[in-house]
């Protein structure tokens, strides 16, 4: 993942980066850490906005190419200035440090002994202790919820009962 650009190519890119050459239509902008080069060129359809593109450094399958987020932001005109190599190196170090911290957190998490916090719930105790099947627990009765098998036993207000109640309240209000 290092930046191995021959000095001849670097010199050629410095020449291509000059914008004051009158016949030049595209300019070199920068590199990423994979050796890809980024370019700007004039857009004949929109002279006020430059076209941005990437030339992939390593010749490999198109599915294997990836660009870092900073350069993707620049390519899509979400960022006015291209990222510097120092910024890309700092971001790569940050990602490596984040992976190391996540690995350390996973190790700490795996060292913590598993304990049940609720002794009353047998599902938690069997699940934490590695039991094959949790103990059956009665489901709590939910107010207003009708279980399909208990539909006959429970009283359910349907639309007709609600309309009758509303009409009765209206009649009481009009008689008074």
TrEMBL record:
The similarity comment for this entry is:
Belongs to the complex I NDUFA12 subunit family.
The residues forming a coiled coil are: none
Q: Which Pfam families match?
A: NDUFA12
Query: Does Electron transport show up as a keyword for this record?
Result: no
The entry's keywords: Ubiquinone
Tell me the domain of life.
Answer: Eukaryota
Its lineage opens with: Eukaryota, Fungi, Dikarya, Ascomycota, Saccharomycotina
Q: Give the residue ranges for region: Disordered.
A: 115-139
Q: What is this protein called?
A: NADH-ubiquinone oxidoreductase assembly factor N7BML
Return the GO cellular component terms, semicolon-separated: mitochondrion; respiratory chain complex I
Keyword Transmembrane helix among record annotations: no
**Annotated PANTHER family:** ADH DEHYDROGENASE [UBIQUINONE] 1 ALPHA SUBCOMPLEX ASSEMBLY FACTOR 2, NADH DEHYDROGENASE [UBIQUINONE] 1 ALPHA SUBCOMPLEX ASSEMBLY FACTOR 2
Q: Name one GO biological process term.
A: mitochondrial respiratory chain complex I assembly
């Amino acid at each position: 993942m290092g930046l191995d650009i021959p000095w001849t190519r670097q010199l050629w890119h410095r020449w291509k980066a000059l914008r004051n050459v009158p016949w030049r239509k595209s300019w070199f902008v920068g590199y990423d850490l994979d050796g890809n080069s980024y370019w700007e060129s004039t857009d004949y359809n929109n002279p006020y906005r430059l076209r941005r593109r990437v030339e992939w450094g390593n010749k490999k399958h198109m599915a294997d190419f990836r660009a870092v987020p900073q350069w993707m932001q620049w390519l899509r005109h979400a960022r006015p200035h291209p990222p510097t190599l120092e910024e890309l190196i700092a971001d790569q170090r940050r990602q490596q440090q984040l992976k190391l911290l996540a690995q350390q957190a996973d190790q700490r998490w795996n060292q913590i002994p598993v304990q049940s916090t609720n002794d009353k719930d047998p599902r938690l105790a069997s699940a934490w202790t590695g039991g094959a099947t949790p103990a059956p627990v009665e489901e709590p009765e939910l107010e207003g919820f009708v279980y399909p098998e208990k539909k006959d036993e429970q009283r359910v207000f349907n639309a007709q009962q609600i309309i009758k109640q509303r009409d009765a309240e209206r009649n009481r209000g009009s008689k008074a």
